[in-house]
TrEMBL record:
Source species of the chain: Elaphomyces granulatus
Domain of life of the source: Eukaryota
Main localization, broad class: membrane
The protein's name: Major facilitator superfamily (MFS) profile domain-containing protein
PANTHER family in the record: MAJOR FACILITATOR SUPERFAMILY (MFS) PROFILE DOMAIN-CONTAINING PROTEIN, PROTON MYO-INOSITOL COTRANSPORTER
PROSITE patterns, per the entry: MFS, SUGAR_TRANSPORT_2
Major facilitator superfamily (MFS) profile domain span: 126-415
């Protein structure tokens, strides 16, 4: 019990038993700490699992209120949602103390050592879509390399006897080649935020990026001047920047926690594979630069087809307060309804607690201690008050984000 009169979740210290040995105590039976302290100590993992530090009885009461507020009556049974919340709180304790069907137990045990081919068809469809998006990314980067041998001459640049641009036209040549990456960083990356967060969601942002890539590839093959080619390469860069911003996020939001890291490697792997395919197309069409540069449209066709049949990110649906739809999606992404209920309530708890930590309110400490009592829509309300620049600032003002941003920046700079 803290100074606000609200009981908080426990830390799990090692306490001696009757024989003098150390033993791990269960949550709910040991002293409690303030949520603010827990949130600032990553080792305690409160942001990753805020439910662990709450009593089961409190969680069950919270679930009932959550169930009514978000009108889930026609979507999921409240008892299943309660079981899912308790599973999210402490998996080992839940499996010891609760009766599970053979299907549920097998699915939970399989999570300990998950295999990709054991995942649901819907999850594999989303991952396939993201992998093709990465192939488009790599192909778009590589296909101009072969075309660089021919287009300067055909589009009227001043070239020497070997066909290399010379004089002031060498700057034009460099501008056309670099425009893709400048457009990706200066426009595409920034454009992805409104596309993702406010308009179309993950699927819509990915399809918009695919349309940019498709139009740019076909347009590049029909250009009659270097200025038109420059414009098309800028469009290609916008598509690349938007894709790079959405695909890893989309993958992480649909993937099970235990294999999330492995699956996210697919972005870099399939981008490299796309570069290989783009280089191969340069060899296949080695005498026609228009076919070389236009060949990047090939992988965009399956990308645009798949993006309309895969599921939306449940995380994005929760942002829009569409909890019923999020649960339906999670049912398709997970093996059992119990796992879907677990992920729904756990995700809800995580984003509400994170929102309190990142908010600029004066009573953050009190809110952290009482997040369960008023947090059913806290994330959605706070998100509607923020914008891209506010979230950008939080990359540096929030300790947890600042450390991750610094590490990511070092890796990108070294690359």
């Amino acid at each position: 019990m803290n100074h606000t009169g609200i009981e908080l979740g426990p830390i799990s210290p090692q306490l001696p038993n009757q024989n003098g040995h150390q033993q791990q105590q269960r949550p709910g039976n040991i002293p409690r700490q303030r949520f603010e302290d827990l949130l600032r100590n990553n080792q305690l993992g409160i942001v990753d699992n805020p439910l662990y530090y709450r009593n089961p009885e409190d969680i069950l009461h919270d679930v009932e209120e959550f169930y009514e507020v978000h009108k889930l009556t026609d979507v999921v049974d409240v008892e299943l949602l309660k079981r899912g919340a308790l599973l999210a709180r402490d998996r080992d304790e839940f499996m010891e103390d609760n009766i599970l069907s053979s299907v549920e137990r097998r699915a939970l045990l399989r999570e300990e050592n998950p295999k990709f081919w054991q995942q649901t068809r819907e999850l594999k469809t989303v991952l396939l879509t993201c992998c093709i998006g990465a192939i488009v990314q790599g192909w778009s980067q590589a296909n101009i390399n072969g075309a660089n041998l021919f287009w300067p001459t055909e589009l009227g640049l001043d070239v020497d006897a070997q066909g290399n641009p010379q004089g002031g036209d060498s700057w034009i040549f460099g501008l056309v080649n670099s425009s893709t990456y400048f457009a990706a960083s200066l426009v595409g990356g920034w454009l992805s935020d409104p596309l993702n967060e406010h308009f179309f969601g993950r699927r819509g942002a990915l399809s918009a990026a695919g349309i940019f890539s498709l139009a740019a590839s076909i347009g590049s093959a029909y250009t009659q001047s270097w200025l038109a080619l420059f414009f098309c390469r800028c469009l290609q860069g916008i598509g690349m920047g938007a894709k790079a911003a959405v695909v890893p996020i989309f993958e992480s939001e649909v993937s099970p926690a235990r294999i999330r890291g492995r699956l996210l490697v697919s972005w870099q792997t399939f981008t490299a594979f796309g570069i290989f395919l783009g280089a191969s197309s340069n060899l296949i069409f080695h005498t026609n630069w228009r076919l070389q540069i236009g060949s990047a449209f090939i992988p965009t066709i399956p990308l645009l087809c798949l993006v309309f049949i895969c599921s939306e990110s449940p995380h994005w649906l929760l942002k829009g307060n569409r909890y019923g739809e999020a649960y339906v999606v999670l049912q398709r992404l997970r093996e059992t309804p119990l796992q879907a209920a677990r992920d729904l309530y756990n995700l809800h708890a995580q984003i509400q607690v994170e929102t309190i930590l990142f908010s600029r309110n004066q009573n953050v400490s009190i809110q952290l201690d009482r997040w369960d009592r008023h947090a059913n829509n806290l994330f959605q309300e706070e998100f509607n008050r923020t914008n891209f620049f506010g979230r950008l600032v939080q990359l540096f003002t929030v300790e947890r984000n600042r450390r991750a941003s610094l590490a990511a920046s070092v890796v990108m700079a070294s690359q």
